[in-house]
Amino acid sequence: MAEPISLVSGLVALSAFAFKSSVTLYNTIQSFRNYPKDVRDLNNELQALNEVLSSLTETADATTDVDLSALHLPLLRCGNACKEFEQKLLKCSSRSGSNGMSFRGWAQLKYLGDSIDSFRHMLGGYKSTIILALTGATLRRSTLTVASLDKYRNMAKTTTIDLEARLEVIDGKLESIFEQHATESDSENAELRAIKDDRLSTTKCLEICAQLLDHINRIPLRPVSRGRSPTGPMNSERITTEGLMECKETLSSTTARLERHMEGLIDQFGRTMTSEEGAAELATLREEWGAARHCIDICSTAGKNITVIDNYTTGDNAVQFLVSTKEKTVHGRNRGYGSGTMQIGGHLSDESVQQISRDNSRHGLPNIRDPGLPSRDNSPPVPDDAVAGSNEEFRKRYGRGLKLASKSVPDIIISSRGPADC
């Protein structure tokens, strides 16, 4: 007998388990005939899910540098849901006395009290979540266009909306179960009423946290450079930005604690139920509730740390930076035409970028070999008061610059430029 699959299993085992369960359910449904449209739609969804799970299994088995640990709970729940639905289908078929080929009890087949179409939408949510997580984890090694990025972000948005609707349905079912078993006013049900009230309070607190996080995320926060003076005009903006970021971290931590508390309340309520069937349904709802919230977390972050840039410049001695200093995924290209062009790309620290700028300025820009211009060796030093309007902070970050002469134009000062924050 195979060992049971649990959340502590490895990603390869969980993806293989979900894939096997989905394929088995697909084949079981295919063994019937004369099924209605909602069952045909379910089989189409299962076929698409199988393809996604197959790709995930291959990726998880072939690579070790892609972090897909966030998919542990969705994969476990997806696999269990397929197994449970198959068991209900076979049980319903056997009760009807059908030989499997002429089963006509599809309308009576329910999962967690909902229709086949609702089950299909649930599997669609898991499929989309897996696609988003798999795409997001491999973005740094893949080619991405602006159009595909927009498609990726739109998918994340619509999937989040669908998952939130699914979560509302689950909350409604939990509320119904709590109401049904905790309506008595005698002392024997005092504990049940207390659990019910605590659940309602926890639900409200989760809503408050979600609203606050959404409000903060809508506020445009401009990153404050580390090089700015703490007593400068941007001091208040720095305080506000840092305060809001700390608030977001606190809210995220509070939400996670509330979710764990909610799951504990559902478990506690399930232990008070005398009906094994009711307790099993409550346990399934609890798992589905936790998985739906987890999928929402995955989708809500998809596509938010990606920047697409296309650098293009013409002229001599151009310096281009296409880097990320904030762990964002950068997709783009540097294109430059001219003598002495220098291009830098990749993931670098802010300090490294500043050092490259200083070194480039300190050693001088490459000579464009115009006989009318001085070479680097005999270029006169630039006075401190001639650099960027005596901006001391500019000089410290990017260097002194280089004074060039020209027969046709007055002397100008050119200094390398730092990158825009990605």
UniProtKB/TrEMBL annotation:
Region named Disordered: 352-393
A Pfam family reported for this protein in Swiss-Prot or TrEMBL: PigL_N
Recorded superkingdom: Eukaryota
Residues of the Azaphilone pigments biosynthesis cluster protein L N-terminal domain: 2-210
Organism: Lophiotrema nucula
Protein name as annotated: Azaphilone pigments biosynthesis cluster protein L N-terminal domain-containing protein
